[in-house]
From TrEMBL:
Positions with biased composition (Basic and acidic residues): 1-14
Protein name, UniProt field: Pyridoxamine 5'-phosphate oxidase
Entry GO terms, CC: cytosol
GO terms, molecular function: coenzyme F420 binding; oxidoreductase activity, acting on the CH-CH group of donors
Domain spans labelled Pyridoxamine 5'-phosphate oxidase N-terminal: 25-125
PANTHER family: HEME OXYGENASE HI_0854-RELATED, PYRIDOXAMINE 5'-PHOSPHATE OXIDASE-RELATED FMN-BINDING
Keywords: Oxidoreductase
Region (Disordered): 1-21
UniProt-listed Gene3D superfamilies: Electron Transport, Fmn-binding Protein, Chain A (2.30.110.10)
Amino acid sequence: MPSQEPRTDVDARYSSEGVAPTPWPQARDALAAAELFWISTVRPDGRPHVTPLSALWHGDALYFSTGPEERKARNLESNAEVVLTTGANLWDKGLDVVVEGTAVRTTDEALLRELAAAWEQKYGGFFHYDVGDGCFLHPSGRAYVFVVAPRTAFGFGKGEPFSQTRYRFS
């Protein structure tokens, strides 16, 4: 897992003059509060694939789930590099956060039970999961669970002052 406090810098080319970096705790809180994320994966032929999904900030990483037959799960078999994006669909308000990292499947059933409870607490009963065979289990099948520890993240502060903060994890 990465260190909790990343190295942080502002890209002056895309930031208001003299703006300070968005603190990592603020970006981390935005990740924890977000209900919708967009995941970007790469198809085996190199074409990009982007789709919305729920995700959970837990500990120092993002977790998401997907059915084994879904396009993103099949993409991860050949290339585990992902980008998870969340934020507001507004030009001049809010903070968008982008997390880059490697998706690693987790099958630890104690952790999966902890995550299933956290998912239901965050999203409600629609996201009720049982756990078995190293997966989330739900009425329409099973779902693999992946963890993405941030390698690099970006915070895009929108509105005056505008800012682009890069977070580099060791």
